[in-house]
Amino acid sequence: MTLLSVQDLRVTFGTADGDVHAVKGVSFDVAAGETVAIVGESGSGKSVTANSLLRLNFGADVRTSGRILLEGRDVLAMSEDEVRAVRGRDVAMIFQDPLTALNPFYTVGRQIAEAYEVHHPGTSKKDLREIALDSLRKVGIPEPTKRVDQYPHEFSGGMRQRIVIAIALVNSPKILIADEPTTALDVTVQAQILELIAAMQQEHGSAVVLITHDLGVVAEITERVMVMYAGRVVESASVVDAFATPTHPYTRGLLKSVKSLDTGRHERLESIPGIPPSLIKLPSGCPFHPRCSFASSLGSRCSTEVPELRAVGSSSSACHLPNERLLDLLGGAHDR
Ligand code: SF4
């Protein structure tokens, strides 16, 4: 069952230097209980896409168009009051940095209780405390009866992220958006947090939209991946297909730049040449063409024509290369 349907989402920020086209026609669906990852470098539009789901892109001149259907209701057409009712109850967000996501002046118990009370007014103080304790227990905070009255600075980074997850899940949201949830954490804690998100998802049956630049995180807990570049989805595939047979040169570049089990000890990882383009002045044609090693094989087509997302095998790819060539050339992303 489709829970969320994003259709032709476009987000533009007006700035003194010109319009920043952060998201340019993104469409995707998320089913109940599914985990979808949106992957890309900084400036690819992944976080702006995620923020749009809760109308959290702020600024003097933000222009958003398209449709974001949450169980058939368009978030972009809702009143402010309606969006506030959705935030935290139907759709909750786990932010990147737990320290800034938590209020340093309130105990963690109070912050969990407030997140619940805002959608359940009239809940007694006793019940709110029980709910806070239960939430801390579920996310694995030891000694919850003592910790519930402590402040965020009294917790480690990993424990703080557990508290942020407890707040996000206290209303059993249908959709959980996790924006780089492990980036600010020690590597040893990252896996624990990902396992916790996966376990909590199973318990609550929520759909998860995971925003990350880290393909290792994607492999860990997601089923489907969308790769974004310069505000567009350039590849959409199951995680298995994206890793085994990527169908876009950019995805291939991302895979070659991370370590895998096949990487030899003394082998150098490849990086994608160049830098991501300016979103104010995008290159003509395929925005990846200045960095793409396959562009020259297609004459001037790559620098003049924007490729549309189309089916390649069981994936979708926005590249002009013919399907057979894409599968042949890119399927060997792990060959070194
Ligand atoms: Fe590379 Fe051309 Fe495909 Fe863009 S359309 S990814 S430049 S081959």
TrEMBL record:
Keyword Membrane recorded: yes
Topological relation to the membrane, as annotated: Peripheral membrane protein
PROSITE patterns listed in its UniProt record: ABC_TRANSPORTER_1 (PS00211), ABC_TRANSPORTER_2 (PS50893)
Entry keyword set: ATP-binding, Cell membrane, Membrane, Nucleotide-binding, Transport
UniProt keyword Nucleotide-binding present: yes
Major localization listed first in the record, in broad terms: membrane
Domain ABC transporter: 4-255
Single Gene Ontology MF annotation: ATP hydrolysis activity
Locations listed in the record: Cell membrane
InterPro entries the UniProt entry points to: AAA+_ATPase, ABC_Ni/Peptide_Import, ABC_transporter-like_ATP-bd, ABC_transporter-like_CS, Oligopep_ABC_C, P-loop_NTPase
GO CC terms of this entry: plasma membrane
A Gene Ontology biological process term: peptide transport
One Pfam family per UniProt: ABC_tran
NCBIfam families tied to this protein: oligo_HPY (TIGR01727)
PANTHER family: DIPEPTIDE TRANSPORT ATP-BINDING PROTEIN DPPD, OLIGOPEPTIDE TRANSPORT ATP-BINDING PROTEIN APPD
Name listed for the protein in its UniProt record: Unannotated protein
Protein's organism: freshwater metagenome
